[in-house]
Amino acid sequence: MENINNVTEFIFWGLSQNPEIEKVCFVVFSVFYIIILLGNLLIMLTVCLNSLFKSPMYFFLSFLSLVDICYSSVTAPKMIVDLLAKDKTISYVGCMLQLFGVHFFGCTEIFILTVMAYDRYVAICKPLHYTTIMDQERCNKMLLGTWVGGFLHSIIQVALVVQLPFCGPNEIDHYFCDVHPVLKLACTDTYIVGVVVTVNSGTIALGSFVILLISYSIILVSLRKQSAEGRRKALSTCGSHIAVVIIFFGPCTFMYMRPDTTFSEDKMVAVFYTIITPMLNPLIYTLRNAEVKNAMKKLWGRNVFLEAKGKK
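Structure tokens predicted for Olfactory receptor:
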């Protein structure tokens, strides 16, 4: 296939073509993005400054927050600026980089959530062996595996798209570059590429989701043997994990477990996993986790004390 590429930029249709709705969306999503940055940075600071890194659960939670910031930053700033812009354009190279970033950080988040489920499984079902199984070296290797897995997944997606010819039109009915909307613009048959993309994304999304469901089912069954206090604490922690998994994987499965087709609802569904989930993660993990809340209170109390001492 000869790669004839006459397209140097793409034009987004954005979330809406109504100027009034765009102004409202600008305010709403600007607030959402600020919450994403502040909430996830607060979790990272809390984990680092309170030495919670030694606990595998908080070790992975801090990196989940880092990935959430990066993941939302790939799409949100551009979308927010475009809400007030007359021309919603992105260069061809910028589009490919955005596509890579969305799948890299999105897939890394999926793998981190899977690793966090495994951590909870070991902590609850094999408590006597927990420190041996989840030592720092193994945690580092598992974390590295999540990043490598995310990179391999995204590089395959981009490699499949960049070898396609684009001759026009160049308008994308979305607010960021994703595989299915971009494939629609290729001036060649994309059936095989679409199947490979679906298998690549779908296998990871569905496979990880099934693993997570099995892990948390085993955990919930094993809780019957726990004391009332242990059961309450475990349910509090696992409940927050399960909530994040459902909010994130539901939209992802809808988007990537189907053939190479696009729907008008795709943009609103994408908002859930690119903006809503990264915004809710800090709230879910802090509101349902007493240890994180206490660590934040200590951090806030320490800062207030130092500020008061500095004024004397």
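The CA atoms of residues 43 and 62 lie 6 Å apart.
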